[in-house]
Amino acid sequence: MGLKTPEQYVESLRDGRVTYWDGERIDDLTTHPRFRQALAIAAADYDYADAGRRDARVYRAEDGSEANRIYQIPTEEDHLRRRMDFFESSSIVAQVTGVYMALLSERDAVAAINPQYAANIEAVYRHARDNDLRAAEVITDPKGDRKRRAHEQDDPDLYLRIVERNDRGIVVRGAKLHITGASLCHELVVLPGKGLKPEEADYAVAFSIPVNTPGVSIINKSFANAEHETFDAPMTARNAIPEGFVIFDDVLVPWDRVFLAGEIDLSAKLTRSLGLWERTGGLTEAAHRAEIFTGLAQLVAEQQGKERDIAILSSIAELMQFATVLRIMLEYACANYRTMPSGMIYPDVLAVNAGKFHYASNYHRIVQILQDMAGGLVITLPSVKDLQHPEAGAYMRKYLHTKQGIAVEDRMRVFNTIRDMTADSYGGWLLVTALQAGGGLNAGRIMLNRAYDIEHARAAAKKAAGIS
Amino acid sequence: MGLKTPEQYVESLRDGRVTYWDGERIDDLTTHPRFRQALAIAAADYDYADAGRRDARVYRAEDGSEANRIYQIPTEEDHLRRRMDFFESSSIVAQVTGVYMALLSERDAVAAINPQYAANIEAVYRHARDNDLRAAEVITDPKGDRKRRAHEQDDPDLYLRIVERNDRGIVVRGAKLHITGASLCHELVVLPGKGLKPEEADYAVAFSIPVNTPGVSIINKSFANAEHETFDAPMTARNAIPEGFVIFDDVLVPWDRVFLAGEIDLSAKLTRSLGLWERTGGLTEAAHRAEIFTGLAQLVAEQQGKERDIAILSSIAELMQFATVLRIMLEYACANYRTMPSGMIYPDVLAVNAGKFHYASNYHRIVQILQDMAGGLVITLPSVKDLQHPEAGAYMRKYLHTKQGIAVEDRMRVFNTIRDMTADSYGGWLLVTALQAGGGLNAGRIMLNRAYDIEHARAAAKKAAGIS
Amino acid sequence: MGLKTPEQYVESLRDGRVTYWDGERIDDLTTHPRFRQALAIAAADYDYADAGRRDARVYRAEDGSEANRIYQIPTEEDHLRRRMDFFESSSIVAQVTGVYMALLSERDAVAAINPQYAANIEAVYRHARDNDLRAAEVITDPKGDRKRRAHEQDDPDLYLRIVERNDRGIVVRGAKLHITGASLCHELVVLPGKGLKPEEADYAVAFSIPVNTPGVSIINKSFANAEHETFDAPMTARNAIPEGFVIFDDVLVPWDRVFLAGEIDLSAKLTRSLGLWERTGGLTEAAHRAEIFTGLAQLVAEQQGKERDIAILSSIAELMQFATVLRIMLEYACANYRTMPSGMIYPDVLAVNAGKFHYASNYHRIVQILQDMAGGLVITLPSVKDLQHPEAGAYMRKYLHTKQGIAVEDRMRVFNTIRDMTADSYGGWLLVTALQAGGGLNAGRIMLNRAYDIEHARAAAKKAAGIS
Amino acid sequence: MGLKTPEQYVESLRDGRVTYWDGERIDDLTTHPRFRQALAIAAADYDYADAGRRDARVYRAEDGSEANRIYQIPTEEDHLRRRMDFFESSSIVAQVTGVYMALLSERDAVAAINPQYAANIEAVYRHARDNDLRAAEVITDPKGDRKRRAHEQDDPDLYLRIVERNDRGIVVRGAKLHITGASLCHELVVLPGKGLKPEEADYAVAFSIPVNTPGVSIINKSFANAEHETFDAPMTARNAIPEGFVIFDDVLVPWDRVFLAGEIDLSAKLTRSLGLWERTGGLTEAAHRAEIFTGLAQLVAEQQGKERDIAILSSIAELMQFATVLRIMLEYACANYRTMPSGMIYPDVLAVNAGKFHYASNYHRIVQILQDMAGGLVITLPSVKDLQHPEAGAYMRKYLHTKQGIAVEDRMRVFNTIRDMTADSYGGWLLVTALQAGGGLNAGRIMLNRAYDIEHARAAAKKAAGIS
């Protein structure tokens, strides 16, 4: 028990879990080349040796033991900020483990319906924390025909559902899409994907089970190929975690792992709570990414002697604006946290949602600005392998020179980073997740409709219009 | 000395000032119908009688006397927030009087060059505060041919300049454009419009003089006609303050009123300082205006039974987003104030500029969204006078009915407010000032280039790219 | 019979029509000051004396008589182009008279249901043409509560409806909104505002009646005040035509004036046909307006010596782009006309709708660009009356000078035109009508959904995706 | 002589050319796996066997021989349209061979300076046409420090230049970037990258030489890896042509291959002429791509039962609008061609540039709309190999089902095509080339400034403003 080492983490994944990738069933992912890169990324999060890193990644739990920061229940502003720092220094596998905050946020609402469910949440949380586990957020159903509700589909399994209840637990069948890092986690925390109607009670189901539970299979997909040059794709090398298409083929969930089994009123609540913590993480990443974009634009300009060019300054100002709005929305959300009866705090809901929507609705435009100012080398720059070839490399050094003090390798690093982040497979993944993480632009607008204080605006409008 | 009454304010403007409007020289503006509406607006700011209003508008100065809130030198966050409240409850004539904050912010820089100038600033400030005066911000030169600098113009007076220095003071000649409320203020606080080169020393001039100083003339211009129905144009009725084209025809400025006379290094500094306080005020107004827009959209929807319509909710969400970003930028700027050696504080420069730029670059798009959802009645609704006509009014009541509980007058008020704010002469004034207050989109981008911490972004980019 | 003179036109409006404006019932609009400006504009369209103008405004009808160009049934491309020229040289009162094209387009569909209706259309058209009449497009119902359909409203009259059918004709009750030039036309051509369901048959009603028919009242509304300086508001002076709120208070429509009385299938068809001709006219105006904007931007730049400034050229390029897309969409629509069995042609539906949607969705952005580059004088420039004042005028001449060869009057004309078109009451009217003429952005998207050849795109996508 | 077969084409590339890729010198690209995919694509253009394809790809030259359509000098509108069809049915290697049109367009201007150059152009064109060659467009110099001109760089070779002139020809040194298909062409048609000053005469150089000329080396770069599943990446499989970084290491260009050697006035002209033909091709591809996007959106909607969803229809309408504007700009450009004295025609310059700018400035926004409506499966869909696996494939078939009649393979094809075109390495290449082909948004604006008839707009503005 306690913090794991990278080696212990790797070993812990040899647990019989069933995964597929590129048409192959992989029985031991720890030795399979397809998982090599992703495993290295996820394992690196368990490197607690370095003192600075340890401080960012470890906190002392209320029982005095050391635990991974992602498990820290925030009760003061500093906890939220350290959570942000943790996000910037850890992989997405560690980040999604924040799913427990969503469960804990709704603990009281759950307890009101069934105290056993609430107790399960706490027990599962402590188990995961004390064993330094990783947990996937398992939400989105396949949904089939969007015109029909869950129980009206050609196949009732197109939304995950309870097919049996017995004395040991519930038996569930269905699948979930877009599950980040599923194969690299220990636990699958399953929540319903949306609000449900009374006749859909069998679809109101939430639980957490180990990834190697019988009946669970994961089909993996990644933007990244198995191998990459780190020099050519520096961001891919740090972010290439696969998504999982997770199947539940009549899986038995023991009663002590169940958080919801038919109570439709709670289902939307759990999902919404998860959304807040997910979007807070997303906004943290977004603000950081926007700063990287701004710095990359500045470096391109400096390396080409264009840092005083009016049009370039104008483009950089647009990137600065984007980065500033995101950063301030995030800072404000943390500084203006709300406190629950339990003492747990959470960031300002409106600020988080508005920040996330700003990101989603402007991201493609910002990519356009960055690509417009960076030029064609973003996509036509040869590989570092060519740079290492004696003849080709000599030509590249001669012709990619711009001015004294600018190393050709550094120019290449900048263009490669821009390509990797905006114009290659990882860049494409970022474009889509900028929009889809948390549910598309329409979902973002609905969150605003909910979180905004319309009464205040109505009153201001009535006063302006002279309506009493 | 001390706070004025509305009557004293009106009386104080009978001081021989020279103003023109619509082709007429107006010798006593307090009795002239063209000024009636503007005068009433500016005088209403002097209404300190009501207790609630008094609290917003009055503070106790360090010498114990009561003074108008605009004169309060902020030394803690609450002062900034009260300043924001003051802006929302006062006319633009009171708002521009905040020009003294810009002077006081640069007091130490001014003192380093000439202690007398600094003493002049303090004396002028105290004089204005103790007499409850209003002061105009007098900045923009006519500029003539933009390709040429000040001293290269066909007419050297196209930028305001010193034409003589004598033992009594300096004599200035030139003009200034876009001076809000010039005719309704007591003081003209004149600052240079931009950075200057050594050969332009005569153009580096700052001072404050009474509006009735010999040689000063003001030609007025307003978006508003002399008379308006308050019902049909509720916002015009509260905001119809003219701009002045202010001419300085060999005006003697006594030495004790001079803040700058040839010191080119200071000129850009003063202007930039003013910019911050001006933009803070602008952002305050912008955030409030965006909330009114959001509320108006909500009211239109409710009055027509469209408040659950998906497309309408989507439009309202965009307005909410706009309002939220502006409000949070402003809140953040106040909460993250900076302190000067003097103890005076000022809001976060980056947040203010990013907030203002967000407003300027999105305002027209937001107007589009509001007008798109509000429909054609915004421009085709008949006047309240028609509503008051027995026959025409009866038709209007019958056919503008939507549903129980919605008064036709209230529908009209909502459409009138939208028209007044977005599709009429005041709306046009708002469109242009959204862009031009503080200098156009390019000026906004330059401010971002200056205020943004590019080193932080460079470092993030270098780390991402693997550049050591 | 035949073409009218301006005087005959004015005289023809003394026909007992009932109009209201600003709370007053006006029994003879030809002598009332409120109508002076609008009447002058509408009467000027009847000036056929000048040879060049005559060519644009007059064509020879099939019976050899001369008639106003708006009545020409296009049968070849040149007719469409001349129609465009006519639009650019005539007021909106003449333009809306194009409503007859919509009726004639659907003549055959109408004949299939009731030959008498079709005969009525032809007779009314010939009567109007032969008497050089003007006809208003009377479409939009008040609509009440938007959640409910016509027959479900609190008041069944909230959509215009047939309340009685007798041997002389039908009796209609209701009102119509946004009727451009209603008071200045001779005929009201009334069409249903949208598609109807079987239970709404009484709302399926179309007809044409003289404005002075008993029971008709018009309440006027204009963006323009009664009086304007042409120098200060040059576009208002040419476009200040009021909209009418038209009431039908149990109006008898004789059978020979009825085009539709209960046939719900035809109702949407007539409305859609009108939409095409309305949008063609709108696109003609839009393309012309965009060219004026581009030229105004160029003049501002030249007058201030900024015509080589990179940022200014960039702004002008955006205006050029807007103008070019609109112009080419219009040209393409005419060159690729379609022919009906009758030989009548009409412009390409997709091109017209896409052109109009391009205008509507980009107009506010384009106004932003123009205002951003034009600067603050757009709103703060004093009036021409001040220029005419000896002292104030001398100051204005001195300080509005930019360089040799640029007359101050011409600078003022340019700023005044920009203000008038984008930042004053006419500018506001243009902002709203850019969106709302033809029904808002959502209506524009629905038209695209309808007009676009989705099968072609589906096939291209299937081929790309390898779907057989 | 005459048309080649695919086999002859492949054989023709075994000519001793020097190419590098991924750090390896490849002496025979026809047998090297890295070139396998690209070679197959380029060779497929030589498949003239099928009758339908033959018609699109072959024309009869003036001497009666058959030649590839790309060599057809257009003299009537139909030639332009067939050129468009050719673009849609051929790879980019065939498309760039259109570079000869740019040379022929400027033949007379070249002849005026040096008749020998003009004769060289004709001879080179005929040689290429008669041997069915492919030619690369070789334009962009590395440019080094952008603040300095060509002759001021640290290394004078940072722009391609003449280092020697002798009786056999000129010797050139330098490099060119972004050369599409360089390794797969026979000829390198080299043109200067921008306008030059008198002191830069050695940089004014244009010529055509075989790819295997001694001293020429090409370093390749592609968005595509060596191997792809066609099912998973259908567009990559048809478009994976590498760009070349082409080095000229003291290459002798014989005099009969020289088109320009020091004549700076011509240099910008040649480049601009190339730009027109390049952008015409780009617009052709753009219009086609926009139609594919529209169709893909429609298919996504249909397959998920969302084809009547209002928000989805609204998104599809935006795609339709984009596709329509591009298609109409292209159609108009062809229908409104201009004729040169030689009888050669070219498409309307303004329409082509405005069409291309519309594409470049809206492409990222359109990708956003498509990705927003398509959802997360775009990036998380497992590979076809998983579908082929017995267990994984069964799960995929069960859970990717939506409704009767929709094959899971077809859903996958649609998502794969969207991912491939917008969210993967080819998608990134499209994002960047949408902007950069032809030189970035600023270059696009400059082209508009040049091509637009500003006099017409100035006149319209002056008339509107009342300026005589």
From TrEMBL, chains A, B, C, D:
The protein's name in its UniProt record: 4-hydroxyphenylacetate 3-hydroxylase
Lineage of the organism: Bacteria, Pseudomonadati, Pseudomonadota, Alphaproteobacteria, Sphingomonadales
Gene Ontology molecular function: oxidoreductase activity, acting on the CH-CH group of donors
SUPFAM superfamilies in the cross-refs: Acyl-CoA dehydrogenase C-terminal domain-like, Acyl-CoA dehydrogenase NM domain-like
Keywords for the protein's UniProt record, in alphabetical order: FAD, Flavoprotein, Oxidoreductase
Domain spans labelled HpaB/PvcC/4-BUDH N-terminal: 5-260
InterPro entries: Acyl-CoA_Oxase/DH_mid-dom_sf (IPR046373), AcylCo_DH-like_C (IPR036250), AcylCoA_DH/oxidase_NM_dom_sf (IPR009100), HpaB/PvcC/4-BUDH (IPR004925), HpaB/PvcC/4-BUDH_C (IPR024719), HpaB/PvcC/4-BUDH_N (IPR024674)
Xref: PANTHER family: 4-HYDROXYPHENYLACETATE 3-MONOOXYGENASE-RELATED (PTHR36117:SF3)
